[in-house]
């Protein structure tokens, strides 16, 4: 069974730039997987950040951007702020009506 | 305002059944696929099921296939998840999400399902 991989944790300094990645246990991520990214603070519903690799959801600041880097999907946050400290999830569309989430990355801003 | 609101969660015994509902507003329900996503306590998000805009096709995660049924009623702008043969590992917050461009767009606040004797 294909596993979607994410860094379990990451840290960034306030004002800094961080890139989180989303890969596959077997194979490479491409735009054909329509990678999307979600932000979730504890106790809250997820918020959609990026869909179809690099399209920003309505109201999402341009500090957040999506791309393909090498064989993985990537979420880059520039000018990190304290309230960026939360969990980030990627999802890949595996085809045939099936989606798979990554395990999530807990981002610390410190 | 585009909105989805889940309801129907609660405590159910192992082997029992429960039906979740997701009332939608602010968008043309019949034009969008809809998803259920869940999150077990302290764990990550897990995609559960998807239904096409016209309800013609339904898709499930292996973990729920054969036990859960997704459906929709366009006359009520409402999505459903019928859950049966529930197990302890089905304990989670269940989110309804509007589908868009192979992603999840609008999320509800979720409804908690606890499977326990």
Mean pLDDT of chain B equals 97
User: In angstroms, what separates the terminal alpha carbons of chain B?
Assistant: 40 Å
Report the principal-axis shape of chain B.
Answer: globular
Can you summarize the main beta sheet of chain A?
Answer: 7 strands, mixed
The largest chain-to-chain contact, stated as pair and per-chain residue counts, equals: A-B, 26 and 23 residues
CA gyration radius of chain B, whole angstroms: 13 Å
Note the main sheet of chain B.
7 strands, mixed
Q: What helical percentage do the residues of chain B reach?
A: under 10%
Strand content of chain B: over 45%
Unreliable runs of chain A: none
Order of helices and strands of chain B: EEEEEEEEEEE
Number of H/I helices of chain B: 0
Helix/strand structural class of chain A: mainly beta
Question: Strand content of the residues of chain A, in percent?
Answer: over 45%
> Given the helix and strand composition of chain B, which structural class is it?
mainly beta
**Looking at the chains present, what oligomeric state does this protein adopt?**
heterodimer
Uncertain runs of chain B are: none
Number of strands of chain B: 11
């Amino acid at each position: 069974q294909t596993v979607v991989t994410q860094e379990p944790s990451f840290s960034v300094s306030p004002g800094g730039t961080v890139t989180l990645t989303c890969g596959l246990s077997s194979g490479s991520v491409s735009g054909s997987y329509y990678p999307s990214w979600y932000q979730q603070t504890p106790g809250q519903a997820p918020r959609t950040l990026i869909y179809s690799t690099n399209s920003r959801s309505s109201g999402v600041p341009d500090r957040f951007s999506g791309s393909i880097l090498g064989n993985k999907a990537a979420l880059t946050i520039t000018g990190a702020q304290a309230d960026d400290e939360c969990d980030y999830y990627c999802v890949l569309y595996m085809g045939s009506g099936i989606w798979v989430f990554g395990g999530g990355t807990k981002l610390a801003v410190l | 305002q585009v909105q989805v609101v889940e309801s129907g969660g609660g405590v159910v015994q192992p082997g029992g059944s429960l039906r979740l509902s997701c009332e939608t507003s602010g968008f043309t329900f019949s034009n969008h696929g809809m998803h259920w996503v869940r999150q077990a306590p302290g764990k990550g998000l897990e995609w559960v099921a998807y239904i096409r805009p016209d309800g013609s096709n339904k898709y499930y995660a292996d973990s729920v296939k054969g036990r859960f049924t997704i459906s929709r009623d366009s006359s009520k702008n409402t999505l459903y998840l019928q859950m049966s043969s529930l197990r302890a590992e089905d304990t989670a917050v269940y989110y309804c999400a509007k589908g868009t461009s192979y992603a999840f767009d609008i999320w509800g606040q979720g409804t908690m399902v606890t499977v326990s004797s």
